[in-house]
């Protein structure tokens, strides 16, 4: 007989402020606010630093790839790219092989600016983890990976089959 998984939440005793989702959302919000403050002098907002970093790390080279990497829709990605282009951080270039494809390239200013992003992300995350031991940190990562694995398995199980 298969063991039933534990049930941690019950409708009659639910305290939304104590839910894992709420706690993670508050942590992400606090982290995003701090990263925004740190990157503001570089002229970057939360919506702009991630695409700039993805381009810098060569994780995307087109608007479609960038939207997928940043998990945003095509319209929002286009508007954000317009702002990055206006600021002189990126340029668009038609592909020589396929004129329908528009490649995204960092300008020299965009590249210089993007080089600062990893240090800011490390600084902010290290500040949030300052009261953690190495063991705490390793345990937290392992637990979050396990939770993410469960989330992905649930999502895959609920996807319609072709």
From TrEMBL:
Presence of the UniProt keyword Transcription regulation in the record: yes
Any Pfam family matching the protein: MarR
Residues of the HTH marR-type domain: 17-149
InterPro entries named among the record's database cross-references: HTH_MarR-typ, WH-like_DNA-bd_sf, WH_DNA-bd_sf
UniProt keywords, alphabetically: DNA-binding, Transcription, Transcription regulation
Molecular function GO labels: DNA binding; DNA-binding transcription factor activity
SMART domains the record matches: HTH_MARR (SM00347)
Keyword presence, Transmembrane: no
Protein name stated in the entry: MarR family transcriptional regulator
Source organism of the structure: Hydrogenophaga intermedia
